[in-house]
Amino acid sequence: MSSVAPQPENSPILACTVSRDVQNFDLLIEDMETALGESWGDLGFAEALAFFGQPEAESLEFIALAIDGEDEDNLVLMGEIIAQAKSRGIKVILIAEDVTPASLHQLLRKGADEFVPYPLPEHELQSAIERLNSPEPEVNQSQHNTAQLKSGSSKEGALIVVHGLAGGTGATTMAVNLAWELTNVDKDDAPSVCLLDLDLQYGSVSTFLDLPRREAVFEMLSDTDSMDEEVFGQALLSFEDKLQVLTAPSDMVPLDIISPEDIERVIEMARAHFDYVIVDMPKTLVQWSETVLQAAHVYFALIELDMRSAQNALRMKRALQSEDLPFNKLRFALNRAPKFTDLSGKSRVKRMGESLGISIDLQLPDGGKQVTQGADHGLPLASSAAKNPLRKELAKLAQSLHDLGRSDAEAA
């Protein structure tokens, strides 16, 4: 048993790093010392398997399995280390640098509890340890039912996408509240609505609606080849028995762990069973962004009246046009738009649209603190602040989208 930090007498070892050479992961050494003082050790791969059987290993709470690109040839050994740890009740934090999504996928399927990229983001190891130690939230099954989908259903639901072009533009707020307004848009003939959180790493739809994140989501996304109505339905959670939600996975997974084909299957399955499918996208463009863009009936690009939104809108425009992708599908929505009486703000909006060569089709008012408070309590604005100006605007948008869908259906 080699040890980076000298062990005080009789101090139990609570954790171990497991790596080819821990000196390659100097930030990990620092973070382990910060989190655990001297109650940790360091093992090589083969040593780890031998050590798990020793009496000293009984105090182990977790291992930090640190791998890089060179370790991809040893995936079977890595998988065995994870399996042996799990069989002894030892949690596994997977720390990876320059490892392909396919390899990460394989190791996460083996049972790694947490994934943290290397170099480690600040405080991320400590957060991962805290998550390991916090008990699983109990799911109240009567409150969060999974969906029972009818096999052979062949609706052709409208796909409405929301994509924030900068952090904090309110994309998740818009996606969640638009989805909820659509479920309530017609009291006599309520449409069925499914909300997909495709921001796989930082998606917070589950937080906004106080829904648990479940393993079933990752399992479904990992094997869409064999996904059927039952598997898809079990990955969904019901919010107040009206809105069906696919939350982001419980672990932070790489955005490219799923392929364009996976996303296509998920969207097709959702559209076949629901009248409206709302997608909350990651800010990052990934290999499957084009799949969603091509399939979308309406694609809202959310911006604010600031320089970073303007620059990102321009970069998005260039990126799509350089690849001959349908940039004209984007409907630019300005969140926290100036009030009707703010004439100088109105002229800034006009100048922004002209200088970027875009049409700002939708202006959403600033909902203020009520928006954050509602999200923190896990409630849509309609429930937490029905008279909020942003809520009223999103209700109007839902009504106009629904009316448009009906008139299209009648015309067809």
UniProtKB/TrEMBL annotation:
Hey, what's the signal peptide range on this chain? none
User: Which GO terms fall under biological process for this protein?
Assistant: negative regulation of cell division
* Alphabetical keyword list: ATP-binding, Nucleotide-binding
Under the heading InterPro entries, the entry gives: AAA_dom, P-loop_NTPase, ParA/MinD_ATPase
AAA domain residues are 159-311
Q: Name one GO molecular function term.
A: ATP hydrolysis activity
- Entry GO CC: cytoplasmic side of plasma membrane; cytosol
User: Which protein is depicted?
Assistant: Septum site-determining protein MinD
Organism the protein comes from: Falsiruegeria litorea R37
